[in-house]
Amino acid sequence: MAGRVSFGSDLVTDIESPADEDGVHDSFSQLIQEQCHDLHDVIEMTPLDVEQESRDDFMYMEAPGYQRSDSDGPQQTDHLIGERWSSDTLKVLSSMPSRTIGRSRGAIISQYCNRTMQLRRHRQSRPSIQHFPRSARPSIRGYRVETDGAGFEEEESKRERLVNNLQNLSAHDRVRVLRAMPLSVAEKKELRMLVLNKAEHSVSQSQIPCCSQLKYYIIIALRHGWYGWLSFLSSLQLWQTALKCVGGRFGTGVLSYFVFLRTLLFFNVFLFLVTGLFLVVPQAIAHPEQNITVSSTWGLEVLTGAGYFSHSLLYYGYYSNQKLQTGHSCPPSKNVTSCSPGLSYNMPLVYFFTIGAAFFITCIILVYSMSKSFGQSFRIDKSKGLLAIKVFSSWDFKVIKKSSVRLQRANIGTQLKELVAEVNRQELKFPVLQRLCRLLIHMVAWIMCLAIIIASVLAVYYFSEHMHKDLIRTHASSSDPLLKEASLLAVPVVVSSINLLLPGFFNAVAWMEEYDSPSVLNYVSISRNLLLKVSVLGVLCYHWLGRVASDPHSLGLECWESFVGQELYRFLLMDFVFMLLDTFFGEFLWRLFSQKALKRKRKPVFDIARNVLELIYGQSLAWLGVLFSPLLPAVQIIKLLFLFYMKKVSLMMNCQASGKPWRACQMTTIFITLLCFPAFLGAAVCVTYTMWTMSPSKSCGPFRGLRTMFQAGKLWVQELAEVNPNLQWLASAHTYLVENPLFLFLSAGIFLIVIYFHSQVVDGQRKIIELLQEQIENEGEDKKFLITRLQDIHERKKGVTPRRVKGASEDSSYS
């Protein structure tokens, strides 16, 4: 372990008590008053039993952290530790709200015996028992608090009646009753075995009918089938074993990256299914006749997306603007005029609503995922409590395979290291001068990072402008087509190089800052990489929509939408290529150089911030390109699949776990939040701006001939109103709800308000939980105070009683 954990007096104050313990606390005060009254107003005294005195002298409270000492001087500062406990105090302890409700075991069995009798009588009206009143835990036993023989016989008779009543219950109700009993596990197991043995004995005496046996066999078979189906469904989870291996070896921080990658894969699968079913498949069925010959460019079109792919289903320009017909149904030996037209498919309308619906559903899923993740990650879970739960109740005893046992052991071990590190982590307090120096270092580091980000953004802006002018000159002059197509890769290569090199500079600056917490270091790195990615994407969006789309004729483009789709395809592919290079040079070769040349066993640590921001950057490109390239999500799916296995293999071979274990309890929430607001919101704004304001190409695509893409929905509504006058209200609704941007802003505002209120509710729940935990700690302190008072009163009473007994014996001798 990374450090030691004390389960001593720190956990004593974390005792939870029932909600209905006010009466028991009142009984504490009454008991103290009675003890004080007996101390001053004793009427008749009896000699104390020697055995009881000796028993009181050697009674000690056994708990973690309590110690005994043979020396005369006090060894503990707490009055509760190392004190002698009398039988009266032990009885009070057995009545504490945190231990029991003040009843003996016989009373508990008697109560549940009566309860099962009532349940058996009212089974018709009460088919299930789900609302039992809360009971407490069993009383303290083992402190030689003895009972008489009559009580024992009465307890046994009550136990027998309880067994009979449990036998008459259904299996489901019997399990619920046994779970609700405030008895130990051994006693519950004993009761269950008694019930089962008695049931088997009764079954052996009376033969079960054949129909009942068949019914039982069918129920058992269905239950086994249901459990097997649930196990099969759990085994279908994507990369479940691989994620467990990663989490067990590298911790929750690295695991959050792979979980986030799987989440992005599901988003792209959804986009691919929507665009494939409603756009690609209908267009592929109604294949348009295009007599276009494309010259091959030595396979370079795989990297550039041009050439053969320019006139394929991959890009916007291939899709038709007509209503697609599935065919004509003509009966035999009839005229052609009697032929009925087949089904029509309005491609412009479907294209518009498919893209809009895909973004709207993705927005809903993202908001829901973010809200759910907020509620799960920002809970108030004390590390000590989680550590105790992980130590005592985290092992799954149903795991029997050796590989699964090793995997579970490694996973639990890594989580324990993270929890122990969080428990032992303390905030370092520096002197004022040192804090000022650290603040100055942080300011200089941020200034350096912001300066290099601004310089990179300016470099991308001017380089993209230069390449745009170069394309205009190349179009005006006849040049080599191979060189022209290869020049299209210049801007993607420059941008990918910046995304590859600058995170290393950020890591070097963060190393100079010397952050104490690994989580803070990751958050700072994420924020710096996020600024870089968002700034570069903003410049690229201006380049595509402000330069290319505003004047496509200067570049000789007949379909600027397909050109923008090709650009996004090139950026997505170059991003993947440079991630391969980073994995090879930054992890594999660096590990070989460190081990062979430097003779060090240390391996590089997986950079979570850089890799996560690369995923968000690639997903932003996919969302931006789904309008111009409906099959771009398929390319992103292939990229993510390769990336998962490549990163997993490289992680296992070339990386090591962080030297400072830390628990990433909120990393997934932060990733989803960054994916929603900077990435998806920016992509949605760009796509909406293109559909509302940009003029589509006049010679290609489903929106040719329209002033804007948004006009396709308006024309469809007008056609419906002309065909059916009763649908005039639909045109008005479309005008005020869809054409008016106020509705879009209103919807976005409602989403933001929902997220805000949900975050406020979660924050309020956190504050309430903090207050409740503080109240529980205060109640624990109150109990310690009351027990100390009781013990003091008992000690004073022991000092007064011998003197009074001695005086009573002298009076009897004189008489």
From TrEMBL:
Main location: membrane
InterPro entries on file: TMC (IPR038900), TMC_dom (IPR012496)
Region of interest (Disordered), ranges: 1-23
Domain TMC intervals: 559-664
Signal sequence residues: none
Single GO term (MF): mechanosensitive monoatomic ion channel activity
Subcellular localization, as worded in the UniProt entry: Membrane
The keyword Isomerase is assigned to this record: no
Membrane topology summary: Multi-pass membrane protein
Any one cellular-component term (Gene Ontology): plasma membrane
Keywords, comma-separated and alphabetical: Membrane, Transmembrane, Transmembrane helix
Transmembrane segments: 254-281, 350-370, 439-463, 488-509, 530-549, 569-593, 667-692, 742-759
Keyword Membrane applies: yes
Family note: Belongs to the TMC family.
PANTHER family noted in UniProt: TRANSMEMBRANE CHANNEL-LIKE PROTEIN 6, TRANSMEMBRANE CHANNEL-RELATED
Protein name, UniProt field: Transmembrane channel-like protein
